[in-house]
Amino acid sequence: MARKIGATRSMIVVAVAAGALALAGCSSDTDTAAEETTSAAEAATLAVAEPWAKASEGPMSATFGVVTNDSDSAITIVSADTSASDRTELHETVQSDGVSTMREKDGGFTIAPQESLTLEPGGNHIMIMDIKEPIEVGDDVTVTLNLAQGDPITFTAQAKETAAGEEPYDHGGDSKDGNMDQGNMDSSDESMNMG
Amino acid sequence: MRPPAVSRRSLLLGSAAATAAVALPHAQPASAQSSASASNGAGQEAVPFHGLHQAGVETPLQAHGVFIGLDLARNVGKADLARLMKVWTGDAERLTKGQPALADTEPELAVVPARLTATIGFGPGVFQRSGLRGQKPDWLQPLPEFAIDRLKPEYTGADLLLQLAADDPITLAHAQRMMIKDAAGFAQVRWAQRGFHRAAAHTETGATGRNLMGQLDGTVNPQPETGQFDELVWISDGAPAWLAGGTGMVLRRIRMKLDDWDALSRPEKEMAMGRRLDTGAPLTGSAETDLPDFAAKHNNGFDVIPETAHVRAAAGSVNRVQFLRRPFNYDDGFLPNGNPDLGLLFAAYAANLETQFTPVQRRLAKVDLLNLWTVPIGSAVFAIPPGCDSGGFIGETLLS
Ligand code: HEM
Ligand SMILES: [Cu+2]
Q1: Which of A15, B68, B120, B213 is most buried, with most CB under 10 Å away?
Q2: pLDDT in tens, chain A (195 residues)
Q3: How many Å apart are CA B397 and CA B400, to the nearest integer?
Q4: Which ligand places an atom closest to the C-alpha of B275?
Q5: Half-sphere exposure (CA, 13 Å, Cβ side) for B151?
Q6: DSSP secondary-structure letter at B64?
């Protein structure tokens, strides 16, 4: 299944890249934020709306959504855990020389009071590394955000296929790039496909 | 540090585009968009997706509809189908509320719910998959062949049905785009049949629609939320059990030979139907809802409503409502011979297609005068599973 989906995906990526780039998943909806969050603690002050994860055969995936801070003080997400792997990083995407590159976000994501953070393909995201088994379309990934202030919050992200977000990973040049999507083995495409 | 790899996308778009993409402000919250984009409030009506039954059956007709038939990929089994149903359910939950789907690439198109409904059906092919054999209702099989049929494979049969309808064509196109995109790898579209009624603003919600022959079409129908509707349409006993709260559906694509039909006089057209064109009243009555009197005769002894009239042939000796008809009109341009390519996407819903629908179709195929001007060119049958609650998914009674 997943392999087949991957193949389809790589065929359409060229056609939809332009449209997907600017808009993918970047709308937020504070109205529904509360009901979509399964809060680990009463005191939790972050709400997550529109959570989803990128379907992937491995080794990497990413999870997205709109995280809103309804409290009166800044809250920092310092790390994340997911049910899909034992290794998760908080990533940002940066531009240099016209190339988008993603890298670990120093100090985590700080969300000002009454502001929200959009996690989206091609932008900030939670990187899921070394996934244990393929994340297939429709699977649920449980995601926990660990906060500098207060208890962690946990939510469920449904896995969906996406053509958006193919940033190379600037990981300091110490390890070898792989291609996380086996369906996307186009030799002319050297980027990792990580959301 | 090795030099950053150049992605296909950057090559495609150039550096300016890549930078601009990130600099773009994020989309407004969906709620803000909704109020901004629909100043007169039209289009903001939403049909609840959750419930005992799927929406889109009892729902008053929307202005636009599309019936999409898909075939499952060869390797799709029960668990895969469940995953597709979870994703489709998530899409439908959001889109019917006027919210973007998850990973929606065009969220601006989602903000007008316009009574969008998404109705999912399972064709006979679903039950050839491992884990699902033996779950097929007996009546779920291709209709018998009728002498009038000129079925084309491109409109006939499918493993899955996705029936979408809304009062706004952009809402509909967007829902179709998202949900078909999300089916990639699971299923491939075999056909998509688009249909329409009058614009929502130009008709009363729930009023009988007109077909492209000009007739009021849908008069004799069970009324939503009545015991009669429950009995005729919704499966209660559940044979098989997973279908309790669901229904059966027939889609027939019926071409109208309007050039020939228009050669008839108005009285001839009304005789062929047994009802008046203007009011939709039976030829034996004066109002649309009057019961036809098939025994009534002219002074010369001829039947007022001939035996060959469509409504008389359809009613048979039963002469009471037998199932739900919820058709859409289609108009797809012109045939090579210059005739218009238009007709009816005849959609009927019944708890048991074999006992309720097929006898009517059999009678009509034999005696209906309307057959001279109509040709069935597509046919498909589906089991429509029950609805689901928040947290559940369509098909869960079969697939979980
Ligand atoms: C292009 C094809 C068709 C056209 C234009 C058409 C049109 C109509 C119209 C105008 C009526 C009268 C108003 C009403 O009760 O809705 C009617 C009634 C009806 N039609 Fe059709 N129809 C078509 C095909 C079919 C088919 C394929 C079936 C079923 C196999 C069917 C079954 C019925 C039934 C059961 C009634 C109600 C009869 C009664 O009890 O009075 N129709 N149709
Ligand atoms: Cu990343």
Answers
A1: B120
A2: 333 333 333 333 333 333 333 333 333 343 443 344 444 444 548 999 999 999 999 899 999 999 999 999 999 999 999 999 999 999 999 988 888 899 999 999 999 999 999 999 999 999 999 999 999 999 999 999 999 998 999 999 999 998 776 567 776 544 334 333 333 333 333 344 444
A3: 6
A4: 1
A5: 16
A6: E
For A54, phi and psi rounded to 5 degrees? -85, 125
Across the interface, do B4 and A32 touch by the CB < 8 Å criterion? no
The predicted structure's pLDDT at residue A10: 31
CB pair distance less than 8 Å for B186 and A31: no
Q: Torsions phi, psi of A152, nearest 5?
A: -65, 155
List, as one string, the DSSP characters of B274-333: TB-TTT--BTT-SSTTSPP-TT-B-TTS-BSS-TTSHHHHHHTTT-S--SEE--EEEEEE
Would you state the pLDDT for residue B27? 38
| Residues in A touching B2 (Cβ below 8 Å) | 173
CB of B257 within 8 Å of a chain A CB? The answer is no
For tokens 């985590």, name the residue: A108
Residue ranges covered by each domain of chain B:
47-399
> Of B85, B102, B105, which is closest to A16 when you measure between CB atoms?
B105
Q: Identify the nearest ligand to the CA of A171 by its number.
A: 2
Looking at residue B192, its amino acid is A
A176 touches chain B (CB under 8 A): no
- Tell me whether B198 touches chain A (CB under 8 Å): no
Dihedral pair phi/psi, residue B124, rounded to 5°: -55, -30
Structure tokens, B374: 């109509």
Nearest alpha-carbon partner for B350 in B255, B251, B254: B251
Rounded to whole angstroms, how far apart are CA atoms B203 and B280? 16
- pTM for this structure? 0.85
**ipTM score for this prediction:** 0.81
**Catalytic residue flag (residue B389):** no
Residue of B nearest to A100 (CA): B18
List the single best residue of B10, B80, B96 to mutate versus A (max A Cβ within 10 A).
B10
At a CB cut-off of 8 Å and minimum separation 6, what does B302 contact?
none
Ranges of residues in chain B with a pLDDT under 70 are 1-40
Min Cα–Cα distance to chain A from B286, Å: 52
pLDDT at B36: 42
Take residue A184 and report the two structure tokens written for it: 């996307």
Report CA torsion sign: A194, A195, B3, B9. positive
What would the two tokens of residue A7 be?
Answer: 């193949």
Does the beta carbon of B353 lie under 8 angstroms from any beta carbon of chain A?
no
Rounded to an integer, what is the distance from CA A37 to the centroid of its chain? 17
